[in-house]
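Can you give me the bound-state structure? Components:
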Amino acid sequence: MILSGGNAWAVIVLAALFVYSIRFLGMAFGSRLPKNGPVKRAMDALPGTIFAALVFPGLAEAGLPGMAAAGVIFLAVRKTGSVFLAMILGMGTVALLRAVTGN
Amino acid sequence: MTPEFARGFRASVPAGIGVLVYGLVFGVLAAEKGVSAPQLAIMNVAVFSGSAQLILVGMWSGGFPLWQVALAAAVVNVRYFLLTAAVAPLLEPYGKFGGAWRVHFVTDENWAVTMAESRRRRVTGDFLVGGGVCVGLFWFFSVLAGHSLGFTIAAPERFGLDFAFTALFTALAVTMWRGRRDIFPWAVSAAVAYAAFRLLPGAWYVLLGGAAGAAAAAVRGGEEG
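Here's the bound-state model for the whole set.
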């Protein structure tokens, strides 16, 4: 299912409200947040863990080409620091492996 | 337009050029996912966050419940809480309403430019907003330009374009890797996410995995970030 019509607009409005709330609440109450301790550690770790959760099942489901691409992407980001280049190399790896294996 | 606004705008132009490249890529991917130009235009203004929009569009065709998609997009942005907390003193002189609309213009890029400038001299909220408008213009037009390019690409799976989101998300995840202290939280996150992906409907795997990983970072103690 692709989001279309009212659903698409609803998800955009909802996301806009949520993201704005974070900006506003940070400005209004952010100074009361602990500067260290467990809450701070969780907040610092959260963006990374969200991406890990988002990516891992997809890579696992993509099978061998997906796993190989993940390795290429990891090395490319580490060596070049370029997210864009890493993405292109990852896509190239998948396209190449698909062509070779005939999938 | 105040001189401070103009200064903030100019200071953020280099960051804006970085945003432009990212915006073009994002626009191509959004076209690939079937997001329309008007939807993208409104999203650029109303959500105005690269990472949140990326999650939104990445989950666009997954058939997930709306609130879960919106929540996942927002949760990836909890760091904004810390960014806007840091610039709250700059926005205070504008009063409640003055601060309420200006805070929407906080993004990673102009926030960093503003914080760097504030180490050298006293900056005002107008400098921050000028930078936000600069970054926002680059973002808005590059995304729509990418979107119109995206519709011209035929047979996307031949170029691995269907894998583009996973590739981009993986690359971004690698940039967020903070070294050995992330091993435990990320392993918990990946394990919980995979179990939830298999067992639960919708986008629970993103939310549960992310929350479990953050909880793991909280209980473990050790060094601070």
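A couple of observations. The radius of gyration of chain B is 19 Å. The mean pLDDT of chain B is 88.
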